[in-house]
Design goal:
Layout lengths: L7 E3 L14 H10 L1 H9 L3 E9 L12 E8 L3 E7 L5 H16 L5 E7 L4 H9 L4 E6 L4 E4 L6
């Protein structure tokens, strides 16, 4: 894997990495959307062709309750990306994101998308679970001034 410019890689003890730059997940999403071209280049070493926020996983029929939606979907020149955004309040929020992003990848299998969780607070247990099971998920942190990605030192 080519290492994109602009990302610092964290190898251990990531529980202390957090930001209060965003009041809620919507602010995080809005920040990413405003900077989508640079972020896609820095995170994925790719160019944006198109993107969607709140992409529906299963079509919603008239008068049905709101269906599951992907926080951010990017169609790039090289790959497609399904991104679950997290501004965790509890330690479980990032762990919950593992199941969400795996389910989206399964439901939208035809997109052949790479899976990613972007958080404003790293959780070591989430990182180690992704690594332990060899899950195809990139686990990343962002603030308004910094981007970090967890990598497993045993693997890399």
């Amino acid at each position: 894997m080519a290492i994109p410019d602009g990302i610092t890689y964290i190898k251990k003890n990531c529980d202390e990495v957090f930001t209060n730059d965003f009041k809620n997940e919507k602010e995080l999403k809005d920040f990413i959307v405003r900077n989508i071209r640079n972020i896609c280049k820095d995170w994925f070493n790719d160019e944006v062709i198109s993107f969607e926020t709140e992409k529906q996983v299963i079509p919603q029929l008239l008068f049905q309750p709101r269906r599951t939606r992907v926080d951010l979907y990017i169609h790039g020149k090289k790959d497609n990306y399904i991104i679950e955004l997290k501004r965790p309040v509890t330690k479980c929020d990032n762990r919950y994101g593992i199941g969400q992003v795996l389910n989206y990848g399964r439901e939208l299998e035809y997109l052949k998308a790479k899976l990613c969780i972007v958080t404003t607070k790293f959780d070591q247990d989430t990182a180690e679970t992704i690594s332990y099971y060899g899950l195809p998920i990139r686990y990343m942190f962002t603030s308004k001034t910094q981007m970090l990605e967890y990598i497993d030192v045993k693997v890399n």
